[in-house]
Amino acid sequence: MRAKFVLSAFICTATLAVAQPWVQWMDVYQGVRNNTVKESKWDPSGHLIVMGGDPDSENRLRWTIIKYAPDGRRVWLRSIARNSGEALGGPSALAVDSSGNVFVTGAAHPQPERQAIDTVKMDRDGRLLWRHRFETPGFNLDESYDLAVDDSGNAYVAGMSEAWDAAIHYVVYKLNSDGQLQWMRRPPPPHDRTRSRASRVAYSPQNDLIYATGTVAVDAPRPNDWTRYWSDMWVAAYRAEDGALVGFNRLASQTEYSRHYHALGIVAIDGDLIFTGGTITWANDRGQVSFAAATGRIRPNGELAWVRVYELYPQSQFFGSAIGLTIANGIVYSFSGADHWTDIDLYDCYVLRYRLDGAPLEPLFYRPMPDFEGNAQRGRVDAFGSLYVGYGGSQRSSSLNQDVYVAKFNAGDQLTWQYRWHAPADNVDTLEDLFLDDWGGVYIVGTTVWDWTSGADAITIKLCQRWGDANNDGRVDGTDLETVLENFGAIVPPGSNGDAVKDGFVDDADLALVLWMYGETCGD
Question: Are residues 201 and 180 in the same domain?
Fold first, then answer.
């Protein structure tokens, strides 16, 4: 295993002239070759957990989990290896409970033509506590896609089981805090006679429910239609204690031409479920299709409270879908992109916004570069109401060179700064997730390519923008007091020199914040 710790950011760029962040640290994990980042989570103690897969020296896959401190130290690194005589598949999901215990689920291969689900639990220090194996008798393949935990440390796994006769059924099951199977659920009739899988799962603490969503097969509208493999979205609510089914719904046709939903992100809030993803709409009777972003809210009984479909280019064939989801201050943020298939100049990245009752707010459109082709993928909102959006994509002039961008917008949707990650090799750099801490730190998690010989590496970057840092040098000291006093009384672009509060005014509030945070750096 090779590791690289990078402090300089010679290949990172930040644009705009105000409130620029700086790279506090950067860590690159280089295994043998082609390391992947599957998921990352924030733990209760303010540490970042990153999980992915990488091959060992014999090219056998293992699961790798790294816990980072705010200063960039690897608190621990653990590799979950295969059992003797078996092979290990890729990890699929990560969860962290309220005590800081870490859960990972993924694929295992006990036999050459048999796949099972393995789920492991580690304590906050990275020690393995237990390993659970799930196999369905009579089925040749079990696969997990998502994982959730509740306040008591119970784990809930969502996935599917496939038999040799091509029967595919979703599965949702519960493991207690000791790794023992408590209950397992399959599709209720009549959906148990169709192909289905569970792709997302979430715990709702307000009513102690487990929400699961996934897809169920759709019959082809015409014989031999290639769309016969497409699916509707289903959602189920189970009682966490015993797995009793509380509600079920299948989101199917909504218009004259069938509209099929799928969920890519879900969040349980106030006892309900918010989802975001996409729809597939038959645009005309010739089978032409369009993809649009969809966001909705579902009640525990399965009732659809509301759904909003956003078609950027109505009455035309285009591709669009919501990829990421976050909820803050009573607003649902859905991160999306859309591409008009017949006009390459019509490509937009956008953030859709809705109130919790479904009332739409003005979308935020932004391209990191003039000829950018990509998506708004992840986003977070800080305590000041500023929105941070992570973009992944490429310039049209160099479509094989994909970069990662993070843009910060203040509460008035004004762009404050933009940061770009571009590795030395002209290849694909990807964004997996984005996090904020309480001290102005912005964490970027993804994969990157340093050179063609080593393949992809996992990368974690921390950007610093210290609260109270009025002159953007990463520290709060006497120079910030001088900057505030020099600009006192001015109306400035939010976040520019002197505006420590980032509200567009240099006044007593900025002076108070500098004095309160005096002597601090960026959380290290």
Answer: no
Domain stops at, among 309, 335, 365: 365
Question: How far apart, in whole angstroms, are the C-alpha atoms of residue 464 and residue 100?
Answer: 25
Number of domains in the chain: 3
Let me know: does 237 contact 201? Beta carbons within 8 Å. no
For 236, phi then psi, to 5°, come to -130, 145
Q: Is residue 176 part of a domain?
A: yes
Count the neighbouring beta carbons within 10 Å of the beta carbon of residue 114: 14
For residue range 99-126, list pLDDT tens digits in order: 999 999 999 888 777 889 999 999 999 9
User: pLDDT for 236-254, tens place per residue?
Assistant: 999 999 999 999 998 875 5
Residue with tokens 């148990």: 192
What separation in angstroms does the CA of 435 have from each of 42, 70, 382?
8, 12, 10
Could you tell me if 282 and 254 are in contact, meaning their C-beta atoms sit under 8 angstroms apart?
no
**Same-domain status, 226 and 355:** yes
Which amino acid type is present at position 465? Q
One domain, residues 236 and 329: yes
Domain housing 484: 478-524
d(C-alpha 218, C-alpha 513), whole Å? 57
Cα separation, 89 vs 108, in Å, equals 5
- Residues 135 and 209 occupy one common structural domain: no
Contact 348, 364 (CB under 8 A): no
What whole-number distance in Å separates Cα of residue 52 and Cα of residue 58?
Answer: 18
